[in-house]
Design a protein that fits this description.
- The protein is an alpha/beta fold and 464 residues long.
- Helices cover 33% and strands 21% of the residues.
- It is built from 14 helices and 22 strands.
- The protein has a seven-stranded mixed β-sheet. Strands 7-8-9-10-11-20-21 form a seven-stranded mixed β-sheet, covered by helices on one side.
- Strand 2 and strand 3 form a beta hairpin.
- Helix 4 runs antiparallel to helix 5 (128-135) and helix 13 packs across helix 14 (435-449).
- The longest helix has 30 residues, at 86-115.
- The chain starts with a strand and ends with a strand.
Length: 464
């Protein structure tokens, strides 16, 4: 058994881990690389392997950094099955279609700019038709059900508690040699988060543990602290007549923020200003959440059973049309706008930032991880000047960071995961983390738990 890391090694995007065992080649996730445009485009067009040589894909969850290159894989000749949970398949359908529209729009925009200089047109990575073709290969499997991936390879999905449908992937290889088990964490969530079940940390006895390290060197604030800070931010911003701008992933983070805003509104602890979710994908994703009660925790299940949605409250509006989105620009009253993309690289959030970033009455609230070289990271770093749509803007709006809403386990949670879920593993490998965070987790595991972990680079192979 060996694994080659074709993405998310030394970074948090482009998860693509190639498992070779029993004479088969199985891809663990197939994510899109995000960041510097030219570099990420190159890596997305050349993933480092021949798509036709891949026998199957095991998908941990639907976030674009884990699933966003699947249409490219199919376009390049992959014809195997894509195994995932049912909720992941339903979310992937809308997320890959949305990603395809973004690919086409970005290519058209860049082509217009390049044509002025006599440069050739830009081809989109894939189209909506490619995304539709990819969905024909999806094969949903219930949690905890063992299934055959290929000859000699079986797998099952274990609750990860990150977003709806997210899973750890346990892969069992039984070839001519002894049985070997790999446990891939995907993205591990946090216990006691709203809506979803907690991540399952019961040991499965893996020989190799392949785990994320996004927050390997940081611990989060508690959710209670972040909710209290959110309450103060909304109240203070509204009192000075400003608007609260929240860049948020359409799947997971948007639903969690809505959950807590609903709680604060019901308590009467924030003013009753309107809340707009300006993202068609967020609306579609929220509808998918309603159809998968198998992923809920007890509290969410009780709310839905009582015909009460955790994502609905008075004053909340979902905007689907461009006209509705643009209309917000002329409204002067205080409001809350939640919009995608979460790292501020694409989508309607860019337009809201253009119209809000120069007003000191406004507040931009960072509620998730912002990868290096993204606009979101530059905002999180509180840079005073940022570039949006190719133009420079002076940032006068306040920036506040609330890391207690993160859907990723923090440093303490990751150490606990390695000790419990990965108990007995003879090899531990850290991926999906920027170098500083991965190295911090490696040191903690070695110093506090006596676990020696590998930290591979892109293109490197680890063998068991």
């Amino acid at each position: 058994m060996k694994v080659t890391f074709n993405g998310a090694a030394g970074s948090v995007t482009g998860s693509r881990h190639l498992l070779e065992a029993c004479g088969r080649r199985v891809l663990l996730d197939c994510g899109l690389v995000q960041g510097r445009r030219e570099e990420s485009d190159r890596q997305n067009r050349d993933p480092g392997f021949d798509a036709r040589s891949i026998d199957a894909v095991l998908l941990s969850h639907s976030h674009i950094d884990h699933a966003g290159s699947i249409p490219s894989l199919v376009k390049a000749g992959f014809r195997g099955r894509i195994h995932c949970t049912s909720a992941t398949a339903d979310l992937a359908r809308i997320m890959l279609a949305d990603s395809a529209r973004i690919q086409v729009a970005d290519a058209e925009f860049l082509t217009k700019r390049r044509s002025r200089n006599g440069q050739p047109p830009v081809r989109p990575l894939y189209t909506p038709e490619d995304a539709d073709a990819a969905m024909d290969l999806f094969s949903p499997v219930p949690y905890y059900t063992r299934f055959d991936v290929d000859k000699g390879i079986r797998a099952r999905f274990i609750e990860a508690g990150h977003i709806l449908g997210s899973a750890q992937i346990e892969v069992e290889c039984s070839g001519s040699a002894d049985r070997q088990v790999l446990l891939y964490s995907g993205d591990i969530g946090r216990p006691s988060a709203p809506i979803l079940r907690d991540p399952d940390l019961k040991a499965s006895g893996p020989d190799m543990l392949l785990m994320e390290s996004t927050y390997g060197g940081r611990n989060h604030d508690t959710q209670q602290d972040s909710v209290a800070k959110l309450r103060k931010i909304v109240s203070s911003t509204a009192s000075r007549g400003g608007r609260v701008i929240i860049p948020a992933f359409s799947v997971g983070r948007t639903q969690e923020i809505l959950y807590f805003l609903r709680v604060l509104r019901r308590e009467g602890s924030i003013p009753g200003i309107p809340v707009f979710v300006d993202s068609p994908l967020s609306f579609d994703a929220t509808e998918v959440y309603r159809t998968h009660p198998e992923c809920y925790d007890d509290e969410a299940r009780a709310l839905f059973a009582g015909d009460e949605s955790p994502f609905r409250f008075e004053g909340l509006s979902f905007l689907r049309t461009v006209e509705g989105s643009k209309a917000l620009n002329s409204v002067q009253e205080p409001m809350i706008i939640i919009s995608a993309s979460g790292m501020c690289e694409h989508g309607r959030i860019l337009h809201h930032l253009v119209h809000s970033i120069g007003n000191p009455a406004n507040t931009i609230v960072v509620v998730g991880f912002m990868a290096a070289h993204t606009l979101g990271r530059r905002l999180a770093d509180r840079e005073t000047t940022v570039r949006i749509f190719g133009e420079q803007f002076e940032r006068k709006a306040e920036v506040r960071i609330l890391n207690g809403f993160s859907a990723h386990a923090d440093s303490d949670g990751l150490v606990e995961y390695a000790l419990k879920a990965g108990a007995g593993a003879s090899k531990v490998v850290l991926v999906h983390g920027e170098a500083e965070q991965t190295e911090a987790l490696r040191r903690r595991l070695e110093d506090e738990a006596g676990i020696r972990a590998a930290t591979p680079s892109v293109g490197e192979t680890v063998e068991l």
